[in-house]
Structure formats: structure tokens, C-alpha cells
Amino acid sequence: MNTEREYSLLKNALANRVIYSITKFTTLDYPNHLACILWFAKCNMACPYCYNPDIVRGDGVLSIGEILDFLQKRVGMLDGVVLSGGECTLCPDVEYICEKIKNLGFKIKIDTNGSNPKTLETLIEKDLIDYVALDYKAPNYKFQNITKRKDFDKFSQTLDLLIAKAVPFEARTTVHSKLLDENDINAIIEDLHKRGYGGVYYLQNYLHVGDTLGKTVEQDNKLNVTKLSQLIPIELRNF
Fold it and tell me: N or C: which end of the chain has fewer CB within 10 A?
């Protein structure tokens, strides 16, 4: 590839508007790190309880060039960058973005629904990510009902990949008692146990804080956590 063509491709990539917004500072989203969050526009799933309908349906507002300018000014102030969304692995420039972020000295955490195992594998093999939060949306028999996608096989590949590569990661599930019950969560726990997942399984209780993607109503009852299996460690969030 000639230099002129390389420059043209680089210029076009920098101009791509793939980020919906930036959370400039967080102490909660990257364990033990001060970080910012880049919210990538678009998602290939349509979970009814999703808190980010504007991000899922909306278009990118900030260009790659703009976010890199922002991050340059945060060198020495932040430890890491969280790539969230939406679904960040849908972005065709995600590898390039990760390379640039790592070159600035930041650690990278990715929030993902696990639907793009090949992209994730590339990022892992190139040592471009440091931590992954994997959303285990539902057991296989309810996966399509929750996500509106037939992507459990791809999710399964991602989960096995993360376990095999020994990448620091967490598995987590958002729980709305009208969508997932104790039997469903126990099915997930058993699956994680059988695959050899060695981390903590995080259960995030759905909180009704506004419009969601599926106009989800408030729960009548919370999950009965006393009925959950003890095969793996569990941490409850917002219960």
C-alpha cells in the first residue's frame, strides 16, 4: 500500500463518527481503575431492559479523531478506558481505536454481549485489551426471546474463548424477574461451572429508572436469591 493511500485511509478512519457520547470519569465501571467510558453507537441485540435506547438506535456523534484528542488530554489523569455501548465490537475500526488507546498508555476494558468472538479473539491475540465484562443475557432456551437474536452459539464461543485464553473477565447478567427466574439463573450458573469459569458471577438487579428499549415495566418481585445455586461465587448488585 502506498503512503498516499495509507494517509487517505487513516484520515477517513479518524473522521468516522462511531461514538455516541463520553463519560469523562468513572470509578465504578473498571474494577480498581479510574477510567472514562466511550459509548459506541448501535447494537445488534434488542434486550427489552436496555437502559440505553438512544445509544442503541442512535448514530455516532463524536469522531475517532475527537475521542483520541480527548484521551490525549487525559494521559496521566486516568488509568483506563472502557469501551461500551451499544456493542463496541460492531465497530469496524475497533482494533485501530484500541491500538491508539494503548499507545497512549491506557488499559482497556471492553463491555460486550459476546456476539463477535472473532473480533474479540483478534484483540486478545494482539494484546489490546486488559479486561472484559461479558453479558450472559440468558440461558440458551431463552436467549432469542431476550436478545431478539439467534446468537447463543457465538456467545458460547466467546465465553469459551475468554476462559481458554485466561483473559481477566467477569460474567454478568441483568435480572428482571418477569424475564428471568431462579431456574434460569441456576441454568446459567451450572453452565458457567461446567465450562470452568473461575471468576465471580455478577447479578445486576434491574432498576426502573426511565424508558428502556422495550418499555420495560418495574418488577413486581425481585429474584429470590436464596434459591440460587452455590456452584460458583455470586455477587449481587442493586438487590
Answer: N
What's the pLDDT tens digit per position in 90-115?
A: 999 999 999 999 999 999 999 999 99
Question: What's the burial of 228, exposed, middle or buried (CB within 10 Å: 0-12/13-18/19+)?
Answer: middle
Residue 4 has pLDDT above 70, yes or no: no
List the grid coordinates of 46: 434488542
Distance in angstroms (rounded) separating the CA atoms of residues 205 and 192:
19
Read off φ and ψ for residue 111, nearest 5 degrees.
-95, 125
- Three-state DSSP at 128 gives coil
- CA–CA distance, 144 with 137 (Å, rounded to integer): 9
Provide the grid cell at 110: 471492553
pLDDT class for 217, splitting at 50, 70, 90? confident
- Secondary element (H or E) of residue 175: strand 169-175
CA gyration radius for the chain? Answer: 18
Using DSSP, state whether 239 is helix, strand or coil.
coil
